[in-house]
């Protein structure tokens, strides 16, 4: 399995504190059958402005991590991208050294949990015109979508695709988030499932239990969410959509 969305690069956001914590998280990931992680440190998120983390800091920490897991013989591959906070400058990030994925074809975007800005539509049009597909990070955790699922449909119709958090499927963020995640799955609107792992304590990798739920729902096709689509993402190929196999509500 490939985990798309996590904060394992140490010391650059609210994710892993140091290499030892990252190591602990990666060993946990390996125990779940994860072979690759696409690391997505927060980029331009105002919450971390006071830390003044530069792109070079992230690149340096990433390379140190790659050298470290090599020296420790930890059998997992790390790819670098980012979780980009929405500001009306996304088009400028299409040439950023690591913000995009798949030769510049995909961009993972997060919003403030309470506000999906109206200017998103204008920015999406600019991105799509430039050949970049926006991937919305954990849409089930945004209040406007929890309150009105039509807001998700609108984002979908604009040309966005979606990544759901494993913790949302498992109920770690509460019932409202879990119900919204299930709505995305039921509507066949999920393209990726990612851990959004932040630490080795209460937000670690939990892809395996979440995928067991998804397998009950989608059967073998669930693999598309954690194998086929992340591989396609890395290669800059088209992403596959899923069709549901049975009613989610019949699953225990
Ligand atoms: Fe995240």
List the main descriptive attributes of the protein structure presented here.
252 residues; alpha/beta; TIM Barrel; 7-stranded mixed sheet; 3-stranded parallel sheet; 10 strands; binds fe (ii) ion
Structure report:
The chain is α/β, with parallel strands linked by helices and 252 residues long. The protein has a single domain (2-250), classed as TIM Barrel, CATH 3.20.20. It contains nine helices and ten strands. The strands form two sheets. Strands 3, 5, 6, 7, 8, 9 and 10 form a seven-stranded mixed sheet that branches. A three-stranded parallel sheet has the order 1-2-4. Helix 3 links the parallel strand 7 (106-110) and strand 8 (133-137). The mean pLDDT is 94. Residues 5, 7, 83, 137, 196 line the site of fe (ii) ion.
Helix/strand order: EHEEHEEEEHEHHEHHEHH
- Small-molecule binders: fe (ii) ion
Q: Count the strands?
A: 10
Task: Give the amount of beta strand, in percent.
Answer: 5-15%
**Any idea of the CATH class?**
Alpha Beta
Question: What is the CATH superfamily?
Answer: Metal-dependent hydrolases
Amino-to-carboxy terminus distance: 23 Å
Total number of helical segments?
9
Q: Average pLDDT, to the nearest integer?
A: 94
Structural class: alpha/beta
The biggest beta sheet reads: 7 strands, mixed
CATH architecture: Alpha-Beta Barrel
Radius of gyration: 17 Å
């Amino acid at each position: 399995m490939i985990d798309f969305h996590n904060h394992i690069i140490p010391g650059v956001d609210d994710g892993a504190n140091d290499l030892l914590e990252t190591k602990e998280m990666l060993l946990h990931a390996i125990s779940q059958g994860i072979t690759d992680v696409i690391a997505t440190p927060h980029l331009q998120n105002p919450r971390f402005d006071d830390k003044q983390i530069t792109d070079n800091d992230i690149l340096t920490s990433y390379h140190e991590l790659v050298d470290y897991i090599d020296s420790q013989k930890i059998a997992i591959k790390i790819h670098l991208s980012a979780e980009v906070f929405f500001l009306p400058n996304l088009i400028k990030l299409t040439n950023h050294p690591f913000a995009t994925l798949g030769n510049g074809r995909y961009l993972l975007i997060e919003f403030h949990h309470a506000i999906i800005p109206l200017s998103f539509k204008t920015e999406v049009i600019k991105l799509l015109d430039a050949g970049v597909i926006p991937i919305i990070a954990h849409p089930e955790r945004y209040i406007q979508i929890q309150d009105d699922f039509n807001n998700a449909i609108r984002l979908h119709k604009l040309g966005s695709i979606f990544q759901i958090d494993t913790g949302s499927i498992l109920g770690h963020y509460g019932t409202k988030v879990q119900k919204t995640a299930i709505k995305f799955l039921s509507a066949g609107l999920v393209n990726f499932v990612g851990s959004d792992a932040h630490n080795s304590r209460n937000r670690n990798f939990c892809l395996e239990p979440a995928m067991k739920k998804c397998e009950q729902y989608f059967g073998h096709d669930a693999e598309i969410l954690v194998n086929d689509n992340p591989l396609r993402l890395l290669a800059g190929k088209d992403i596959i959509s899923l069709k549901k196999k049975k009613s989610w509500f019949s699953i225990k």
